[in-house]
């Protein structure tokens, strides 16, 4: 973004280094970007609430919101208006200061991740060299907010929720952080955009299908991000049937909305992270990295490529978000000790093993393929064939089996696929 | 093993305990027999442990109040899963101070059922580990299922009676008509005070309606 | 006794500085208004003491005030989720006092309506159990099927929840002409839905892991504490009133009685009498109920649907007990008559009341999430406990 503002200043005929209001323009640019990202996060959270409610309703043989706006699309605006207009209720025996600031911790931790998340080719506010590290560390702010809210509510049930959340999120940071090393090893960089450039557009060029370690790492990261986002089957901190909403029991009105914006918006962050690391990010199928490098060298990246990359990224992220929503309404919730067992006894050792194996594979890959082992594989090369084979075994086969089973289930129930009243 | 009939079970009990077991009631409906209250636990232990009786399920434990005979009868229904036979026994207690041994050490099912009888009839079960009210609030006064129970009329100062709604509406209707008639004679300004007077003029029935 | 005194009595004198939680009476997952005072050491409970009585409506006292036939709607409210059983139990007790014989058509109608009501009640129980464990989706599925049962029963007797259908001497209305094919169609449809239910939730890994080996109640303990119905059968006791002490039309029907067999599987720690067994026994009972209804519809006898009953019901002096296999276990009605128009004493001993007594014992050492699973698996409803 700095270059953008510098280009603008140059176009106005000033020298960025000496012009007195450069810093002011930087500041203005940052604030604009911050507002834009927060708005994007909030609107996405609202739209995701609509999507989740519709999907949940259709799964449960209901209809879901369909009155406000076309297909209930503006329901989230109605909800937001209602929540803003509610009485600002602060329990008298709560810790007033902590009660008030807890939602802001959560929102801050959530919004700050947008600084490095890519939206498309060269469409992110900053290209930090340590972008991935930054994302992992900044999401830890969220658990601070949850813990504070659980404690400050001065209610035993809220405290339960807060403590469960703290235990859960902190525990699952470990396998998440470990498994993130796998794409880092594959790409050789912490910069999110470099990681994307090391993948390709076609599914077998994604890190998920390049090696079995990438495959396993995808699923472990998926589960860990579900746990960090307090989504079923890991929604113990807000378990409705046990804790009556857990850490946000005492919150009402806009403060409650902050928590939920952060939760739903956090789904975008999780899915964007997964897409970036394992699903090829904004790589457009058909445009290889050589083409891209050629365009960049000639400063002639076509405008449609920006759009295509953003569209590809959006589609991938939305598909993952849909899967997460789908999982929420299918599975029950696991218990605290089962959650801890899963993390520490299964995910952490497996994650460690995956990292070690990936390091070994990378070394071997360089031995075998030499320079061709770096970055995207050339179509038709031996490495590419290996990727394609793995993609067919680990991607196409399970997906086909899953679809066949789905249709079999529908037939066994005596039902049929009917999207007419979606 | 086929189940025993009421008569056979009664026979066995009489052989073992003699006088403590009363006569079997006429078998018109469900026949029962009356145990002597002091030996209740002994007899019940025999009922539970004797291999040919083996009543392992305390099916029901309740009471009936008979103010005319000055008795409270505690009724026990026993059932055996092994032999599939049923037995009904009663214990007659003095209405002024009904006390009987608790069967909780024998059948844990008696725990809550005896608490209910204590709550609703006032029978004290000696040896019950946790005898306190179960269905009524803890600070309730009185034993509701007794025949001479007088309704409390409220709890903690909140009344549970109100006027018949029909009477209420009739009263209100009469009042509004009277006020309207009084308002016809003088001109308009007095309608405001008449309306303002309506809620305050009849505090008693409305107050009762709210409660 | 106030809450503080209760805590000291139940948990010990030094318990007031431990974490004492109040779960209920308003809580999304206690089934009705029930309160649990829980002493928790973090997530693990030392003990959960239930406090009931929030829904006490003095139904037994009302039984002494209204006439024998007039008490029938009140029996609906003893367990409004399985109201047909409460109706039938009372009717059987008074008919025993009167010495009435019920015509076969009435008995079949009673059996059909009761079995349909059993399925409806089990659907609510299974749906809410799944919801308490966290899977929200099975609950609307269960309710969707229950809607069909409600529609069928509404066509039969005019009400969807509190039916007041059985009368002393028979049933209130005859089966409408077009009812039988509708019922058969629904039975075929529901069997497939049970298959879907199994695929969705019964064999779902997380669900089974949550419930397997949890709160195991061995058979002797179950009998001693007086558990009845599916709770008792899941602990391994092979007893069902419909088969072993049959009443009404049940001697004519062939059906199996599902018993607990550690359905969760030993590799997941399943034991006979754990929460999963209680859950799965109810699923299997739904299947058996469908069988019974099919057989009843196949052999539906012609005739009267109500016996000749005197205008004023005045049984002679005596007492009678009737036991029926209700959805939540054995419901026993004990009616004492003094020869008048009104009963001298009506007593309804319900299955949920006894099931609550065991919670204090079994909940020691469980986690709070497991307490929710335990209550749901015992299928307690507040109206049955408090009456």
Plain-language structure description:
The complex is a heterotrimer of chains A (422), B (211) and C (387). With 422 residues, chain A is an all-alpha fold. Chain A contains 15 helices and no strands. Chain B has 211 residues and is an alpha/beta fold. In chain B, strands 1-2-5-4-3 form a 5-stranded mixed sheet, with helices on one face. Chain B starts with 5 loop residues before the first helix and ends with a helix. In chain C, 47% of the residues lie in helices and 12% in strands. The chains are: A mainly alpha (422), B alpha/beta (211), C alpha+beta (387). Chains in contact: A-C, B-C.
Task: Provide keyphrases for this structure.
heterotrimer; B: 211 residues; alpha/beta; elongated; C: 387 residues; alpha+beta; 3-stranded antiparallel beta sheet; 12% strand
List the helices and strands and how they pair.
The complex is a heterotrimer of chains A (422), B (211) and C (387).
Chain A (H helix, E strand, L loop, with lengths): L1 H10 L10 H38 L15 H10 L11 H17 L18 H8 L1 H13 L3 H32 L4 H6 L14 H17 L11 H4 L10 H25 L10 H9 L5 H26 L7 H34 L12 H31 L10
Helix pairs in contact in A: 1-2, 2-3, 2-11, 4-6, 4-11, 6-7, 7-9, 7-14, 9-11, 9-14, 11-13
Chain B lengths: L5 H12 L3 E4 L8 E3 L4 H10 L7 E10 L4 E9 L6 E9 L4 E3 L8 H12 L2 E3 L27 E2 L2 E2 L5 H20 L6 H11 L1 H8 L1
Parallel strand pairs in B: 2-5, 6-7
Antiparallel strand pairs in B: 1-2, 3-4, 4-5, 8-9
Chain C lengths: L2 H9 L7 E5 L11 E7 L2 E8 L7 H4 L9 H5 L6 H16 L5 H30 L4 H20 L8 E2 L2 E2 L7 H24 L2 H7 L7 H7 L4 H5 L6 H4 L30 H24 L19 E9 L2 E9 L7 E5 L1 H12 L5 H11 L3 H5 L1
Antiparallel strand pairs in C: 1-2, 2-3, 4-5, 6-7, 7-8
Helix pairs in contact in C: 4-5, 5-6, 5-12, 5-14, 6-7, 7-12, 12-14
- Beta-strand content bin of chain C: 5-15%
Describe the main β-sheet of chain A briefly. none
Helix content of chain A: 55-70%
Biggest pleated sheet of chain C: 3 strands, antiparallel
- Biggest interface, which chains? B-C, 36 and 45 residues
Task: Please identify the structural class of chain C as seen in this structure.
Answer: alpha+beta
Describe the global form of chain C: globular
Determine the fraction of residues in helical runs of chain C and give it as a percent range. 40-55%
| Rg over alpha carbons of chain C | 21 Å
Strand residues, percent of chain A: under 5%
Which word captures the global form of chain A? globular
Q: Supply the number of helical segments of chain A.
A: 15
Unreliable spans of chain C: none
Could you tell me the mean pLDDT of chain C?
A: 89
